[in-house]
Amino acid sequence: MSIRNPKQALYEQFAIVAKALGHPLRLEMIEHLAQGARSVEALAVKLGQPVANISQHLQALRRAGIVSAERDGKFVYYALADESVLSAFAAVSGVAERQLAEVDRIVRGYFDARDDMQPVTREELQALMRDGLVTLIDVRPADEFALGHVPGAINVPLREVRAWSADAAVGREIVAYCRGSWCVMSFEAVAALRSLGHSARRLENGMPEWKAAGLPVEVAGLIVTNQTARNAHARKGH
Q1: What is the pTM of this model?
Q2: CA pair distance 205, 153, nearest whole angstrom
Q3: What is the tens place of the pLDDT at every residue in 93-137?
Q4: Helical H segments across 48-181, by residue range
Q5: What kind and span of H or E run contains 16?
Q6: At what angle do helices 6-21 and 24-33 cross, to 10 degrees?
Q7: What is the dihedral of CA 167, 188, 90, 87, to 10 degrees?
Q8: Which helix (H) or strand (E) holds 174?
Q9: Which is deepest, 33, 102, 158, 164, by most CB within 10 Å?
Q10: Residues annotated as catalytic (active site), given as ranges
Q11: What is the pLDDT of residues 135-144, one digit of tens each?
Q12: How far is CA 64 from the centre of its chain?
C-alpha cells in the first residue's frame, strides 16, 4: 500500500504522542510511573483522583505508546514504555523553561526561594558518597523508596525530615532527592534542613533520571543494574 505523503503521515503520528502529553495530569502521571509500575487504583490514590478519570488518561497514554500495561490477577499495572518517555518529558519541560516567562516566574518565586544553590550532580554525589562525606536522604514516600533507590540512601519522607534532623550531625552535609528535577519535596526538605542549621543541597534531577543514566539502584537490599526490570514491590501495594 503506497502512502501519498509519507512526511505528513509521519507528522500525524508524531502529533498523537504530542497530544497525549498535552495534559498536566498526564505529565504528573508520567512522573509517578517513572518511580515504578502502578495499578490504576494505586495511581488514583497517589494523585487524589477518581479511578475512572485516571483509567481514561492511562488509556490515552497507552494508545500513544507512552505507557505499557500488564495484568496480574485482578489488577492491571502500568509502566512507562521505555526511557524515551523520560527524554520526551525532559524535552517538553526544557523548552518551557527556556521560552515561557511564566515558568521563569514560578521557578524564581517558589523553587529558587527554597534552594537557589547549584544542585549536586550525579557524578559529584557518587564521589561524595564514596568518600563518606555526605548523608543522602530520599524524601519520597516509603512505597516509592521500596521500588528502588540510590544505594546508601536513607528514606526520610518529607513529613519526617524535621524530626529526623534532630539526630542528624550538624556540620555534615545532607543531600536530598525525590521524584525528579522539579519535585517540590526535595526543595522543601532542603529549605527545612537549612532553617534548622544543617548544610543541605539537593541532587540534580531525581530517581528516574538516576536510573535512566544506567546507575545502580538498590532494591530490597540488592544492587540492581537492569533498569528495565520491574520490581515485585510495585505489586504488593497494588
Answers
A1: 0.86
A2: 15
A3: 999 999 999 999 999 999 998 988 889 999 999 999 999 999 999
A4: 51-63, 84-99, 101-106, 112-114, 122-130, 142-147, 161-165
A5: helix 6-21
A6: 80
A7: 30
A8: strand 173-177
A9: 33
A10: 178
A11: 999 999 999 9
A12: 21
